Amino acid sequence: MQFEPTYEEFPSLENDSLLDYSCMQRLGAKLGFVSGLINQGKAEAFGKTLWRACRGHSIVTHAELEGPLEDPETGEVIKWYVFLISFWGEQIGHKVKKICDCYHCHVYPYPNTAEERREIQEGLNTRIQDLYTVLHKTEDYLRQVLCKAAESVYSRVIQVKKMKAIYHMLNMCSFDVTNKCLIAEVWCPEADLHELRLALEEGSRQSGASIPSFMNTIPTKETPPTLIRTNKFTEGFQNIVDAYGVGSYREVNPALFTIITFPFLFAVMFGDLGHGFVMFLFALLLVLNEDHPRLSQSQEIVRMFFNGRYILLLMGLFSVYTGLIYNDCFSKSLNLFGSGWNVSAMYSSGHSPAEQRKMMLWNDSVIRHNRVLQLDPSVPGVFRGPYPLGIDPIWNLATNRLTFLNSFKMKMSVILGIIHMTFGVILGIFNHLHFRKKFNIYLVSIPELLFMLCIFGYLVFMIFYKWLVYSAETSRVAPSILIEFINMFLFPASDTGGLYPGQEHVQRLLLVITALSVPVLFLGKPLFLLWLHRGRSCFGVSRSGYTLVRKDSEEEVSLLGSQDIEEGNNQMEDGCREVTCEEFNFGEILMTQVIHSIEYCLGCISNTASYLRLWALSLAHAQLSDVLWAMLMRVGLRVDTTYGVLLLLPVIALFAVLTIFILLIMEGLSAFLHAIRLHCTRASHYCGLSRCGAQAPDAQAQRPWLTGPAAPRHVGSSRTGTRTRVPCIGRWTLNHCA
Among the residues of 289-440, which ranges form H helices? Predict the structure, then answer.
């Protein structure tokens, strides 16, 4: 109707609308309309094509839709234009329709009269309103259904997981066509065999099976998989150990010792009372709210912190302890017990003239002309004794504070590293005793300990000897430990004095022991196994509950024979199968031992230097904390009291934010990764080349566990494993077994 004034060339007949189709017929014109939708990118070309093809005998009117619509053919959401084409004549109408088909337009019928158009529009509006009503009611109904289902969503998730676990276990069972039953071959700890039998009986009773399920123990020569039961406290530490490698069956589980050593080494690098207390409070908050469902189902980063909440708790607690030892709280020292140094004792007025001539004391002239004054502990009354706990707070004011702390932390890092690595070797001795590999103790562990202790253990001895023997009066004549340690290998011609009388003879004896332990470490074990092999053609060993044979280990073949020699028993127990002879490859055993020995000897040197990261990261953390205090808090505290309060609040807020993100998160993550690296060092000395990264046997992945949800964790074992066969009649019986 908006185009009525544009048709002035047509005469008015009986006041009818110019757009009325009957009026056009009276004028002899055949007016037609085509309406539809076209893609936004094709609208301009579509209009030009119509103008050229129809030679101007068509009028195109288009407008953009308010929102994008989905293309019914491609499913793509794009913008559309609605168009209306007015034309005269049938031939032009055919051209318009063909052009619309070429441009893939969606054409819709357009009535000729205004009344029909008005009726269709009213009908469409009514249908749209009805659809909106139906959609809103459907959304309300679905919202009510979902809210009601959300109340029991956790129980339903547990039910679904149980059903999936049941069918997963069913798929791992084998089907016996003859007896029409399912057979499950599983590894089960001996302590759980009684519970397994009760579970089978209870499952048969509740399912109403006519034939009850039963269990048979199968004698096997395979090595059982590794299992250690963990709880929410030990799970995180066990994961740290498993990240390096899963221990073999019935080996010593180092995760127990990692509970103490891991947070302690972390705290040595992160030693700060304030930062450790903040980390402890954060972990304590996670521990107290561990039953909250949102924490266990949150994002990956938050869930990672939540799973390691007990590790964070101990790391924060140990950091508080090392912060007390370093006497460091947000880069400031705490004077809890009073300093052991007395400044007034350095003044010359308090000493006799004889003491003044012997000692470098202070007077008014010295104080006036020197910017830096040095306290001499050899002066009576200056040093009154060590600080009761940690570093004396006076070192926080000293200009040589960094030099003193570097010397202390460097020696401490070496001492902790030697103790940590030696402890790993000692743990390996317990494995050899348990598996009755006494020859490994004499030919591997003892040479490794001698190599380690005769060189680096002697270095630790010199550190403690110098600390205990030399005092403040004799400190100027104390020799350098580094020079003495280097001279141990160079055999200098001139007499350097040394730390103690007879030092040269002791060092030569230690070097001789070290030189003799290397060939024993390289050749002792392979030659011993070769000697055993030539004396026997086949070896076997009897164990309670199972027979142990590792087909991928040449060492086991000779080990079996050595156990027979020690036990004096060559007979197999009843029910155990005979052990087949395996080919003895001396070259492979020799090459393996040589690689292990080279790795150990070089690793003792490199890993000892690697423990210096304890000193480096502790120094970096302390310096970053000091810089942050100097750049923020010191500036805010030095402002005039008039505006100091207004400036101090944003300064404290910025200091807290930077402390959390830089010193707690970034520095904490760095110290955490380095602590993992140092525990891998300990594990390499504990495991050796043949034990590193030991995975559970393939039988673990092929057979289900019937020992609860914690069973598939593959983490160590302290109980004898037994392989069992469980035939279950009917599906529901096995469900209760699982």
Answer: 293-296, 300-307, 309-326, 353-358, 364-369, 401-434, 438-440
Kindly tell me if the per-residue pLDDT of 576 is higher than 50.
no
Handedness of CA 539, 545, 550, 554 (dihedral sign): negative
- Amino acid (one-letter) located at 631: M
How far is Cα 726 from Cα 201, in angstroms, rounded to an integer? 12
Q: What does the alpha-carbon distance between residue 157 and residue 198 come to, in Å, rounded to a whole number? A: 27
Q: CA 679, CA 258: separation in Å to the nearest integer? A: 8
Is residue 203 within 8 Å of 727, Cβ to Cβ?
no
Among 250, 236, 337, 230, which residue's Cα sits nearest to residue 286? 236
CB 271 within 8 A of CB 328: yes
- Let me know how many helices (H) and strands (E) the chain has, helices first: 28, 10
Non-local (6+) Cβ contacts of 528 within 8 A are 439, 443, 558
Dist. CA 211–CA 734, nearest whole Å = 13
| Per-residue buried b or exposed e for 318-345, using 16+ beta carbons within 10 Å of the residue's own CB | bbbbbbbebbbbbbebeeeeebbbbeeb
Q: Give the end-to-end CA distance of the chain in Å, rounded to a whole number.
A: 78
Radius of gyration over every alpha carbon of the chain, rounded to an integer in angstroms: 43
pLDDT tens digits for range 639-668: 776 677 778 888 899 999 999 999 999 999
Alpha-carbon torsion (15, 18, 22, 27), positive or negative: positive
Q: In what order do the strands lie in the sheet with 216-217?
A: 174-176, 181-189, 721-728, 216-217
Beta sheet of 106-108, edge-to-edge order: 58-64, 80-88, 31-39, 106-108
pLDDT of 562 above 50: no
Crossing angle of the two packed helices 586-610 and 401-434, in degrees rounded to 10 = 150
Helix H or strand E encompassing 175? strand 174-176
Question: Could you tell me the two tokens for 400?
Answer: 């040589």
d(CA 543, CA 186): 19
Report the C-alpha gap between 391 and 259 in whole angstroms. Answer: 26
| Distance of alpha carbon 343 from alpha carbon 373, whole angstroms | 10
Residues 6+ apart with CB under 8 A from 62: 38, 43, 47, 81, 82, 83, 84
Strand segments, DSSP code E, in 40-152 are 58-64, 69-70, 77-78, 80-88, 106-108
Residue 300 banded pLDDT, cuts 50, 70, 90:
confident
Tell me which amino acid residue 65 is: L
Contact predicate 226/714, CB 8 Å: yes
What phi and psi values does residue 38 have, to the nearest 5 degrees? -140, 150
Q: Sign of torsion, CA 542 543 549 553?
A: negative
Q: How far apart are CA 373 and CA 380, in angstroms?
A: 17
- Round to whole Å and give the CA distance between 268 and 270: 6
> Given a cut of 80, is residue 526 above it in pLDDT?
yes
